[in-house]
Amino acid sequence: MHKTLSRLAMVSMLGASTFAAVQTQAAEEERLFSLNDPMAAFLETRAYAERMGATAEFRKMEGVALDEKNGKIYIAMSAIEKTMSDDKGDIQLPKNKCGIVYEGKLDSNYNISELKPAVIGGPYNKEVTSEYGSGFADKCDPDNIANPDGLYADKHGNLWISEDTSSHVNNAIWRWDGKELKRFATVPTGAEITGVHVTANDELFFNVQHPSAMSKFPYNRGVVGTVNGFKSNDSFTSVDVPKGDDVFDVKIAKGAYQVLARVGEPIPNDIYNQRFGQINTMAGDLKEICNHPDGNMFLPIAEDGSYGYLYTNYECRPGTVGKIYIEKDGDSWKILDGENVSFAAVGGTWNNCNASVTPWNTGLSSEEYEPMASKTGWKKNVVDMSIYLGEQANPYNYGYLVELLPDTNGDFAGTHVVKHYAMGRLSYEMGRVMPDMKTVYSGDDGTGVILAKFVADTPKELSAGTIYAAKIKQNSDESLAITWIELGRSTDADVYDAIQSVSMK
Asked: b/e string for 153-186 if b means 16 or more Cβ within 10 A?
């Protein structure tokens, strides 16, 4: 028995040893790491949580935002369907293919006990067509959100919502002030908006992910960008739904969009002469150029926020993170130098998706769609990582939050990376640290997934702590009451040791 497992978790696990035995027997035969092992809470977090009685019925749980002004968090559910609307289990909601953003009130311990709908997408109309056909039409109301993905709450309490949808011809980014929803920007058809991030100075960053090659230059490749001449609390009139050639362009309601990085272009003053989105194997060979810029993390160096590092996730397998040093130049930004972060020390990363900045000014990247680790199919699930490593990859090494720490000692010209194995293995859309610098809420992207919470032992230190999963009771008003189930406590080092112990034969 690992001494890091909490007494409560051991008691609960033993009490549940005969619970759902028939249902789990087949799964146990296929799993590389047994749910009966005390470290299963960290390597098979979702399955273990379900076995412990947590609700594993969420669908497409995406971004998490902290609204410090109003003491709440927001969580995006891209779509309410399948396990959330199948009339089974704890969650039995009406189907909403356009999605919902939920809000939860934080108590004095940064705990939430209920989720209530805040911004509701739709209505959805599958019969809508256009002159280009039904696949090129706004099936969700174009004047409302569709499939919310990225979220960011600025210091004024405005919630910024970005879309990942095929039910709008053009994905949009919206601002919701608690009363009024306004469309701020749209991107070329086929592209997704990612990386929504607002700085302490109310500057807005967002990216254009995987645009069609038929889009207007420079948006025929993925770009990382910011809006100049606009502050997040400024008034604006909603930008129109694009028509004609505007469907192939970026349109914003106010200010000017500046491209800071474009996939495939050289990184300025990079000592390794790499390109944005470039992913090399551990042997140094080019594997691919990733066209999927995702979460942004701006880490200011100057107290006034006038210069600092902008880290950007690239969502491929393996993934990477680009870093550029940017400095204010009037209303725009100058790019002085940059690099692609090396993840060799942690065996690479997997699908670097959405991101956040910790209260202590480090980046928090995420590994999405953790590779399944069944005895029969695990090798093909990590084939891309095996090519990257030049040897067989261990599936349990992927599916975590990853902290990015710029080197402050001057020992090398790079970024320290730390995978926080103690936080559990999920399909991380992102994690968001609360102001207590200990509590972290995470989006688990997929179908039949959980709402997870991690509480660190020590503020500013995510390498040791306790994982919790939510048990849901649906209320008559369709809000979701939460009871937290403790899964276990451990450290990064102990979980890493458990990963190395996995037999891959």
From this structure: bbeeebbbbbbbbbbbbbbbbbbbeeeebbbbbb
